């Protein structure tokens, strides 16, 4: 009788090294530059995280008093440490320690919304955790437990982060609306208003194109014909959903652009181009 086969890495591993896959010892047989897309993803996400972190903790040049421009990184600003006029919803919190950014109330939820987003999961699973880094490229992990344990079990809370993101989008819309303010106190309109509104519109598009929003719109319905309003909303969200990846990246860019523009105007590095007043 022959001896029992010895268990090998190929039988206990994951991905291309799992027992059901062909016995190939190489990590990959691909000869193309498969590593370029993951590398670009890492660079893009890292650039945004570094910029957003620095600006969130800077505590300066986030409010233009003359035109009521408020950067989204500081909205809502609810601390007594906020610059006068920038607290559109009062100041229920006192002075904050340096470890907390002035936008501490919503920033963790927005971070959670992005981190648990279906597209961003795919992006950083591949580019950061190499799970897997590319098609037909072995991942370095010995086992796969899915989203059943910490920290990945938090991914299941995406719908609840979505609810908060909707509220924040409403707040950002209000910020953009009150920014139609002139230096003399009346109505005003400048380039900053365009920047703020483009950012708000794209943020709404990204938020509503979320997979959770699509599920909320059309879920648990047996007959769309009995719910024409929800069916219409579901079809519109579904159209947006096909552009969710593009909107995920675009809104990172518009957030940086909006904050950078407000910072330049607030620090008097440039003057806002005014069309009215």
UniProtKB/TrEMBL annotation:
Which keywords fit this entry according to its UniProt record? Answer: Membrane, Transmembrane, Transmembrane helix
Q: Where are the transmembrane segments?
A: 34-54, 98-120, 160-180, 186-206, 246-267
Protein known as: Succinate dehydrogenase membrane anchor subunit
Species: Nocardia suismassiliense
């Amino acid at each position: 009788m022959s001896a029992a086969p010895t268990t090998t890495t190929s039988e206990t591993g994951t991905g291309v090294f799992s027992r059901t896959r062909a016995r190939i010892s190489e990590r990959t047989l691909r000869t193309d530059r498969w590593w370029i897309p993951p590398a670009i993803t890492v660079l893009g996400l890292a650039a945004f995280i570094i910029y957003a972190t620095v600006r969130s903790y800077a505590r300066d040049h986030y409010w233009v008093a003359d035109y009521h421009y408020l950067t989204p990184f500081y909205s809502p600003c609810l601390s007594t440490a906020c610059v006068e006029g920038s607290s559109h919803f009062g100041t229920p919190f006192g002075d904050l320690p340096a470890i907390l950014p002035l936008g501490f109330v919503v920033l963790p939820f927005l971070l959670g919304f992005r981190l648990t987003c279906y597209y961003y999961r795919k992006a950083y699973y591949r580019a950061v955790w190499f799970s897997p880094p590319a098609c037909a490229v072995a991942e370095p992990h010995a086992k796969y437990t899915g989203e059943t344990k910490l920290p990945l079990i938090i991914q299941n809370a995406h719908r609840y982060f979505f609810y908060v993101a909707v509220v924040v989008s409403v707040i950002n819309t209000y910020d953009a609306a009150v920014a139609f303010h002139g230096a003399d106190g009346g109505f005003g309109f400048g380039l900053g208003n365009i920047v703020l509104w483009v950012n708000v519109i794209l943020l709404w598009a990204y938020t509503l194109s979320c997979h959770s929003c699509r599920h909320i719109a059309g879920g648990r319905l047996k007959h769309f014909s009995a719910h024409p309003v929800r069916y219409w909303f579901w079809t519109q969200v579904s159209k947006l959903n096909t552009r969710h990846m593009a909107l995920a990246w675009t809104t990172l860019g518009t957030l940086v652009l909006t904050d950078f523009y407000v910072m330049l105007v607030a620090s008097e590095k440039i003057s806002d181009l005014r069309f009215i007043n």
